[in-house]
Amino acid sequence: MPIEKKQMPTSKPFSPEQIAAAKSAAPKRTASKKAVDWRQATVTRGGGVAATIDGLRQFRGPNKKPAKEQVAIRLDQELVSALRASGPGWQTRVNAALKDWMAHQTGKPTTRTP
User: Which residues have CB under 8 Å from 94's CB, separation 6+?
Assistant: First the structure.
């Protein structure tokens, strides 16, 4: 199973000058509260929360030739629970298992089960 790559931020991190300016503009905290860690902060260009989220969201490009088709299939609850419990990527593993099964069915007559 491939290791998931950590997503990189879509905007550049704050410069030391921006961090200093933000710290000086932030309200003073009492000694009992923890200090704010600005190293992982994201630069925004304004426009509200919705605009910021839209700006940070990375969209997939247009899919000229779809590789997969979304379908609805009814399966036993026990089967779906076991598949989900196997961890992330279970749908991809089901796809691979069905491909393997189909490869072994070539040349055999197909029968329909009720």
Answer: 83
Domain containing 83: what range? 71-106
51 and 76 belong to one structural domain: no
Asked whether residue 3 is domain-assigned, the answer is no
Do the Cβ atoms of 19 and 38 come closer than 8 Å? yes
Q: How far, CA to CA in Å, does 71 sit from each of 29, 43, 65, 67?
A: 54, 40, 17, 13
User: Tokens standing for 16?
Assistant: 């030391």
Q: Are 89 and 1 in contact (CB under 8 A)?
A: yes
- Is there a domain that residue 5 lies in? no
Q: Is residue 113 part of a domain?
A: no
* pTM for this model (two decimals): 0.39
pLDDT per residue as tens digits for the range 90-112: 999 999 999 999 988 876 655 55
